Amino acid sequence: MADVEQYRATFEMVDVDGDGFVSVEEVKNLMRVLGQEVSTLRAVEVVVAADANGDGKISLEEFAALMEAARR
């Protein structure tokens, strides 16, 4: 299990609207800021892959797990 506090600051920067979740639009915005345009379909795929509880958005815990998986 990932240490969520390790990713909180990054999560809060990505969660532009401050609702406590990362949405498809916020994934697209993040990728744009990182210099890579992604389609809505690709952003949806990222959210679905990270969304462990199936609510259609990425929580801090899911974000931390995604970041840990990307490090491997």
From TrEMBL:
CDD domains: EFh
Top-level taxon in the UniProt lineage: Bacteria
InterPro entries, A to Z: EF-hand-dom_pair (IPR011992), EF_Hand_1_Ca_BS (IPR018247), EF_hand_dom (IPR002048), EF_hand_pair_protein_CML-like (IPR039647)
Stored SUPFAM superfamilies: EF-hand
Pfam family of the protein (one): EF-hand_7
Keywords: Metal-binding, Repeat
PROSITE patterns: EF_HAND_1 (PS00018), EF_HAND_2 (PS50222)
GO molecular-function terms, A-Z: calcium ion binding
Gene3D superfamilies: EF-hand
Ranges of residues in domain EF-hand: 2-37, 38-72
PANTHER family the UniProt entry points to: EF-HAND CALCIUM-BINDING DOMAIN CONTAINING PROTEIN (PTHR10891)
The name this protein goes by in its record: Calmodulin
Species of the source: Actinomadura namibiensis
